[in-house]
User: Fold this.
Amino acid sequence: MFLADYHMHSFPFSPDARDTMLDMARAACNRGMTHICITNHLENCSQTPACPQQFPPMREYEGLLASFNHAKNLMGGSIDMRLGAEVGGPNFSPAEGREIYENPIFDFIIGSIHNLRNSDDFYYMDYHSLNNFNQLIEEYLTEYVDMAKSKLCDVLGHVGYMHKYMARQGVFFDMMDFSDLLTEVFRACVDNGVGIEVNTSSLRDKYGHFVPDRGALELYRDLGGEIITVGSDSHTSTNAGSGVAEAFQLLRELGFKYVALFKAHVPEFIKI
Ligand SMILES: [Zn+2]
Ligand SMILES: [Zn+2]
Assistant:
């Protein structure tokens, strides 16, 4: 049985997480995960004066690595553990994005857009008072095209992140209404050897679907996309591994044959 959760946060390295790496690893193992990657927030690149609520940048990694090695040693061989990071907008500050990507402590980098340049995190937006929703999504997807071309990440994180926060406000939209731009995003992935993740966190939220959803995953497949990871995006041990088995099942249904693991940014394709 192969189940890999390649997106999870831990305390204290992700300020919005509650449990330690060891707690996360134990919980993931208990949920049947065979492989995990710890991916704490690194918002070093996306930080701007307009986003004071963003997480403080992290540039000293000794504590992170020590905590990872401690958890890994205690877990023994019961689960395959890798250290990665979820980097916010690495293409916003390419020099720093490159420095993070090339730091040998990280096997895997998720590139995520949590905010547009000089804007708030999508988490904080009031979706009822937006006057140009289309422009927002177009700018958002254009950042992902740019990020895939920059090759400063291994997979694009949660393409469609705002679905979760919009649904909480009772606002819904279909990403396929932006299929031209989404095609550009996935084509940039395929052309540059960058993958995407299936993020399961919205499955346990009001939105109730994977991000990206089935339609977008079909588009990725049709464009020749093969590099894919699955991540619970859990911030607590209760959610470690949550939705991963369901995502693997959907990927099988859609005809994907493999889920990728990463070592030194090189994908290893494991049959599902
Ligand atoms: Zn994220
Ligand atoms: Zn995350």
Remarks:
- Residues 133-150 form the longest helix (18 residues).
- Residues 4-271 form a domain with the TIM Barrel fold (CATH 3.20.20.140).
- The two ends are 9 Å apart (CA to CA).
- The chain has a mean pLDDT of 95.
